[in-house]
Specification:
Quinone Oxidoreductase, Chain A, domain 1; ADH-like_N; seven-stranded mixed sheet; alpha/beta; 2 domains; globular; Rossmann fold; six-stranded parallel sheet
């Protein structure tokens, strides 16, 4: 194996994305080295590049990793070279995904089931972590719902309504499927009505036109729930407009999670939580290790979580800059862009 690899590097703050030769990292104790077969692009990637949020330049972006175990660090015994795995990467070069190799903490790594491809699972980690943490982490890092990791908690929230604002988003699709696993019913989501059949296939029971006013949305919900209050809202869009709509929908005592900073005034009788969907954030580690290490592979194999639509970019790492530009221009809808670093 070579000691160098190809990586897509931001050469300096606000600099260009260029392909360079970089080192292949040695996995530390408790880590594995992954040969990256597929990675997906996320909005945060172009935002970091454009706005210079990070400081450790030269910088490698990307945080969705799917590939093969290449090397084991000290103390890792449960994996072997060639195992197919996936994980959410880290915002540091040795753990980022826009390169051919990256290291990962073995206790947070998931195995790829036989019925999923590298490209399909590469579309999952960032949005999966975000959906899962927002629903199941304790306050103030999530809604505090009991994770559906046992027979006792799967289906626990039967006859409890939940509203998912932005069901067609990548995060929204996962939230709907997890809400179904937890037993929530009815599961309301907002969307363009052209997505109705698809969202119902994921588990949504009622798809509401995203262009309805808050009062009309509430009226539609009450047609189904009667006087039953809405105590849970997950806003996957999290603009000021959708945050206010979520607050309007919430009953007194209800709570909402948002994926962007809170942009509205929150009344005293309601709670809104903004959280970090980062795999190894200290407040998330216990929750996400259980998800990735113990649960998600089985759920994927069983069809609890279904694959996203994907589009594979040509040219390996060389195809990523154009893909990020398309995302920034809002020219990507309904699919995740995937790159194969080994084709660079």
């Amino acid at each position: 194996m070579s000691s160098t690899q190809k990586a897509l590097v931001v050469d300096k703050k606000f600099g260009n994305l260029i392909i360079q030769d970089t080192e292949v990292y040695k996995p530390g104790p408790g880590e594995i080295l992954i040969k990256i077969k597929a990675t997906s692009l996320n909005p945060v990637d172009w935002k970091i590049h454009k706005y210079g949020f990070l400081e450790n330049y030269p910088l490698i972006l990307g945080t969705d990793i799917a590939g093969d175990v290449e090397e084991l660090g000290e103390g890792v015994t449960e994996f072997k070279k060639g195992d197919r795995v996936f994980i959410q990467g880290r915002y540091e070069n040795r753990g980022s995904s826009f390169q051919q190799y990256a290291t990962a903490v073995a206790s947070s790594v998931a195995r790829i089931p036989a019925n999923w491809t590298y490209e399909q699972v590469a579309a999952l980690p960032v949005v999966l972590t975000c959906a899962y943490v927002g629903l199941y982490n304790k306050h103030p890092y999530g809604l505090g719902i009991a994770p559906p990791i046992s027979e006792a908690t799967q289906g626990k929230y039967a006859d409890t309504p939940i509203v998912v604002l932005g069901g067609p988003t990548s995060v929204g699709q996962i939230v709907i499927q997890l809400a179904k696993l937890s037993g929530f019913s009815p599961i309301f989501t907002t969307a363009s009505l052209k997505h109705t059949v698809f969202l119902k296939s994921l588990g949504a029971t009622n798809v509401l036109d995203r262009n309805l006013s808050s009062s009309d949305t509430i009226a539609e919900i009450k047609k189904i729930t009667g006087d039953k209050p809405i105590h849970f809202v997950y806003d996957t869009v999290s603009s000021a407009t959708t945050q206010q709509a979520g607050l309007d929908i919430l009953a007194s005592g209800g709570q909402m999670v948002v994926v962007n900073p809170i942009a509205v005034k929150v009344p005293e009788d309601k709670k809104v939580f903004a959280f970090l969907g980062i795999l190894r954030s200290p407040e998330n580690v216990e929750l996400t290790e259980t998800l990735y290490h113990d649960k998600i592979s089985g759920w994927l194999e069983q069809g609890v979580i279904k694959p996203n639509n994907i589009e594979v970019l040509p040219g390996g790492l060389a195809g990523i800059p154009e893909g990020l530009a398309r995302m920034q221009a809002d020219q990507v809808s309904g699919s995740k862009l995937i790159a194969r670093p080994q084709e660079t």
